[in-house]
Amino acid sequence: MPVALRYLALQLWQEGRLADAIGILRHVVMLAPGQAQPMAELASLLVATDRNVEALNYLASSLQLNPNQPAAWLTVATICVAAGDLSSAENAFRTTLELDPSSVEAITGLGLLHIRLVRFSEAVAHLEAAVNRGVNAPSVYACLGEAHFHTGDFKRALGPLRKAVEALPEEGAIARKFALAALVVTAIEYTVEDALRAYQAAAGQHAQNVESVLRTSFQVLCGYGYREAGIRVGAALIERFPGDAVIGYQLDALRGLECTEMQGYLFSKPLSAADIKPILMPDRERIAGTA
Q1: Which of 55, 144, 172, 262 has the fewest CB atoms in 10 Å of its CB?
Q2: Angstrom distance (rounded) from CA 79 to CA 198
Q3: Angle of helix 227-240 relative to helix 245-257, nearest 10 degrees?
């Protein structure tokens, strides 16, 4: 009887009749309390109906019976991310990968989690692995570009950011990050005018004013040790908008120090991933669909 009821519940789940499926799986769990799989399946249904606390209780019971369930650990990770318990989420993602190294959802989830934890080098490794395994979600490309940007690898940021912009042209924050990366890459090798043209071409309708863009790129270039390019951009900023005491002081100090080791005392690297957070959730279904 429990086996037949379980398959009926799964069929109802596929048909979108979640309430009916939950009711039947509750009955299955009561009839077969020693079976781990129905508990895990019931937990997944409860998560789909935003009953995460109850789902976590069933998952704990299921994993106590059988800890070797990668799908159950992945559900635990999802619940922990939603609850803001990022440390437990990371442990659950890693356990999923130990049990199933091919889990694209776990690899992707871990990469996105590392963005939130400001561990960008790890984010790059996992998100690149996800893309190589077939993930084709704009949010993943945006996060991968963001991670490359914050590790100072601006050239490698351009590719994934471009793909994100092509898929989500209305997302101004992503377009501006792509444009900023284009500006920085160009400023390192060419003139400030060339860099501004690259920015305008990449940003399009989402372009910000020149003063704001130059200020941001000045901080980025100096914060990541590109002293000569930083000096060029700083000089262009002062020339266009004279009278800024702070930029003037930083530019004079940068010229006077003549080394990159001291730049950390004057400039800080941008660390916030807030620009891309609003687009992470809408793409979760598309990410999962690549598995």
Answers
A1: 262
A2: 42
A3: 150
* Alpha carbon distance 100, 68 (integer Å): 10
In order of their start, the domains of the chain are 1-101 (1.25.40.10), 138-291 (1.25.40)
pLDDT on residue 223:
87
Report the predicted TM-score, pTM, of the whole model to 2 decimal places: 0.83
SS3 (DSSP) at 266: coil
Q: Phi/psi of residue 259, each to 5°?
A: -155, 160
Q: Shortest CA distance to 54 belongs to which of 32, 88, 29?
A: 29
Helix (H/G/I), strand (E/B), else coil: 15: coil
Those residues with Cβ within 8 angstroms of residue 285's Cβ, 6 or more apart along the chain or in another chain: none
Tokens 């071409």, residue located: 201
| Residue 284, C-beta contacts closer than 8 angstroms, at least 6 positions apart | none
Helix axes 86-99, 104-116, angle to 10 degrees: 150
Question: Which stretches does DSSP call E strand in the chain?
Answer: none
Between the alpha carbon of residue 30 and those of residues 7, 66, 102, 222, the distances in Å are 16, 17, 33, 63
Q: What is the pLDDT of residue 164?
A: 97
The pLDDT assigned to 262 comes to 44
**Is residue 62 helix, strand or coil?**
helix
- Walking along the chain (291 residues) 10 residues at a time, the average pLDDT comes out as 76 86 89 90 92 95 96 96 96 98 97 95 97 96 96 97 96 96 97 97 96 93 90 93 83 72 48 48 48 43
Let me know if 219 is exposed, middle or buried by CB neighbors in 10 A (0-12, 13-18, 19+): buried
- Tokens 């690898």 belong to residue: 153
Whether the CB-CB separation of 44 and 75 falls below 8 Å is answered with yes
With a CB cutoff of 8 Å and minimum separation 6, the contacts of 258 are none
